[in-house]
Write a structure and sequence with these properties.
Helix content is about 5%, strand content about 40%. It has about 325 residues and is mostly beta strands. The protein has 3 domains: about 120 residues, Immunoglobulin-like (Sandwich), CATH 2.60.40; about 100 residues, Immunoglobulin-like (Sandwich); about 45 residues, no CATH class. The strands form 5 sheets. Strands 1, 2, 3, 6, 7, 9 and 10 form a 7-stranded antiparallel β-sheet that branches. Strands 5-4-8-11 form a 4-stranded antiparallel β-sheet, with no helix packed on it.
């Protein structure tokens, strides 16, 4: 039996409730409430999808997508709660913003069970969130130009049920996907990434194994043959999952004029390691010194008198200091290689 109720009233922001009374016994019932903006030019924020994916190792990733019309919403607060069918325990999972409208986090059940998903997306007063237009192509190629919005909003939807038939004895750390290299002054290379966890993206990894090589294929085919980097400066103390990690390596231990490839693995307290991270690279090139150039200018026909008494039209020497164009080009080459 289906019943459709509708209203054309414009509702002010607030909390509303719906009361449904059944005149006969119903085994299962679903209530779906949809809204749309009263503005002809605006679109409401909504949770487009609330679901999960399972990889070939049985790891479950919770996924929610938040959109505003044809644009996606970034920097919202997105939480998925899972309710155990057996124990009735409700567990919240704060999803991480992927900067493309999607929010994800691994689900790490401790026992075989069935779970019900509920997705909630919200914004709080005083906190800015962003709306960016989607572009054609994959999520990674979407535009990230932002429209800033603020204010409160709350959206909730029910997701599918999750049936976990077998739980791994141990979970490894999740793979790092956002490893990048940057210039750090003129003598170091900075490496940045978001920390992963001990159990997928929960907790804190025990350590990170960082390796660099001139031969990128070794990272995938013979990881153990590459010497572990021992030239890091700064703290390598692992931080809790999703926090920013950064450290630097000294440039003078790398060959000049050479491209290097960098990757890492996270390792937990049981010795389990993550998959190899994405591979970052950098071009190591010593930067030239700033050049001092003497320029003798003849027949200066215009300009005010100077302290030396030189008149317009007289010869005078000037010393000019300019930065080498090569320096600028090398920096640009490093950043865009």
């Amino acid at each position: 039996m289906k019943k459709k109720l509708s209203t054309t009233s414009s509702l002010s922001p607030g909390v509303y409730s719906v009361e449904i009374r059944f005149t006969a016994k119903v085994a299962n019932g679903i209530v779906s409430i949809k809204s749309k903006s009263s503005s002809k030019t605006g679109a409401p924020i909504e949770i487009k999808s609330c679901t999960y994916e399972t990889d070939n190792k049985g790891h479950i990733k919770l996924i929610a997508e938040v959109v505003k019309g044809a644009s996606f919403v970034k920097a919202a607060n997105v939480v998925v709660t899972t309710t155990s069918a057996a124990t009735k325990i409700i567990e919240p999972h704060v999803l991480e913003d992927q900067n493309d409208g999607s929010y994800t986090k691994y689900f790490v059940p401790k026992q075989a069970d069935s779970f019900q998903m509920e997705c909630k997306a919200s914004g709080t007063e005083g906190k800015t969130f962003f709306v960016a237009p989607k572009t054609a192509g994959s999520r990674k190629k979407r535009s990230v130009s932002n429209e800033e919005l603020s204010g409160e909003f709350l959206r909730e939807v029910t997701g599918p049920g999750i049936k976990v038939e077998k739980v791994p004895s141990n979970y490894p750390p999740a793979k790092v996907f956002d490893l990048v290299t940057l210039l750090d002054g003129d003598d170091k290379i900075k490496i940045e990434f978001k920390a992963t966890g001990a159990d997928l993206d929960e907790g804190t990894a025990t350590k990170y194994e960082i390796k660099y090589t001139k031969n990128v294929s070794l990272l995938y085919e013979d990881w153990d043959s590459i010497k572990t980097s021992d030239v890091a400066t700064g703290s390598l103390e692992p931080k809790p999952a999703s926090q920013k990690m950064e450290f630097s390596v000294k440039r003078d231990i790398f060959d000049d004029g050479t491209v290097y490839f960098v990757a890492l693995k996270a390792i937990d307290d049981k010795g389990l390691s993550s998959e190899i991270s994405n591979v970052a690279r950098f071009y190591n090139k010593k930067l030239p010194e700033i050049l001092e150039v003497k320029v003798f200018v003849e027949n200066v026909e215009y300009g005010p008198e100077v302290d030396s008494g030189a008149k317009p039209g007289s010869k005078m020497g000037q010393i000019c200091f300019i930065q080498s164009l090569a320096f600028v080009m090398l920096v640009l080459n490093f950043l865009n290689y």
